[in-house]
Specification:
Length: about 280
């Protein structure tokens, strides 16, 4: 089946927040009390109850003028997702559409996916069972996979009145992004297409007016090599040799090492890296 992509053109976004409202409504997410952000931005970042955030960024352009930049922020749905690699319970997988989804029946709330997401869009939510005992589950944008199964588009896309967000087959959306980039280069010299190959490309691609770091995006996110070795080699071999239960214990030790290495690597990537066009 063809891969699908959510295309986001930040130069067309007017900051209306309709995408945030649509996401809350469709996914039945509760309202969330947040501290005053000092601007029109309502939430500092995505959370377990807010999977979609409209960012407002004050930026001084090349002419010395102060301008607001907007960015729709949610899960990027990486083709090679670090969260999927480090999950010791195989609770994270790829749908036939390319979206990255969490199976909450398998999720044990270990938080490895939260720590390793290069875009910081996964959060843990605390629940209570019938006896009052607390437990946690990972939460994030699903790219409305349930809607896609019914032939519908993601809720955020359907409510965007400026066509800043569109959804379709990957090759068609990439061509659209290339065309738009050529149209805006004279106005935005630093404009680029954000589809980082260090994570295999993403199923949410952006046309950005400025460098990724201006929007709070890592310049060159990558899946840690240790995570790849763990998921693709150590875990399958280990399970075959010593059994799944024992391997889960071993996995906890290995994944803790992944977390530490991933944090250091992501910080280095954010401090310096190339653009993605």
């Amino acid at each position: 089946m063809a891969e699908f992509v959510k295309y986001v053109d930040v130069t067309k976004c007017d900051g209306c927040k309709a995408c945030m409202v649509a996401c809350k409504n469709w996914n039945d997410l509760p309202a969330e009390v947040t501290e005053f952000q000092g601007s029109v931005q309502s939430h500092p970042k995505t959370s377990a109850d807010t999977w979609n955030v409209l960012q407002y960024i004050e930026h001084e352009n090349g002419k010395g003028d102060l301008e607001y930049l907007f960015r729709h922020t949610s899960c990027m749905h990486c083709k090679e997702a670090a969260c999927e690699k480090v999950c010791p319970e195989n609770a994270i997988s790829y749908s036939k559409f390319g979206s990255v989804v969490i199976d909450h029946d398998k999720c044990v709330g270990c938080g490895y996916c939260v720590e390793n997401c290069p875009f910081e869009v996964i959060s843990l939510k605390t629940y209570k069972d019938k006896n009052g005992k607390e437990y946690k589950k990972s939460q994030k944008c699903t790219m409305c996979t349930d809607r896609l199964e019914e032939g519908l588009q993601p809720a955020c896309v359907t409510t965007c009145h400026t066509d800043a967000m569109q959804f379709g087959k990957k090759n068609e959306m990439l061509l659209k992004a290339e065309k738009r980039l050529s149209e805006i280069k004279s106005r935005f010299p630093n404009a680029n297409i954000y589809n980082p190959q260090g994570v295999g490309g993403t199923h949410t691609i952006y046309v950005l007016a400025e460098k990724p770091s201006v929007y709070g995006l890592p310049e060159s996110p990558k899946v840690p090599t240790s995570a790849v070795l763990w998921k693709d080699y150590a875990q399958p071999i280990g399970k075959a040799m010593i059994g799944a239960t024992t391997m889960a214990v071993v996995g906890a030790f290995i994944t803790n090492s992944i977390i530490s290495k991933s944090k250091n690597k992501n910080k280095q990537d954010e401090d310096g890296g190339g653009s993605h066009e």
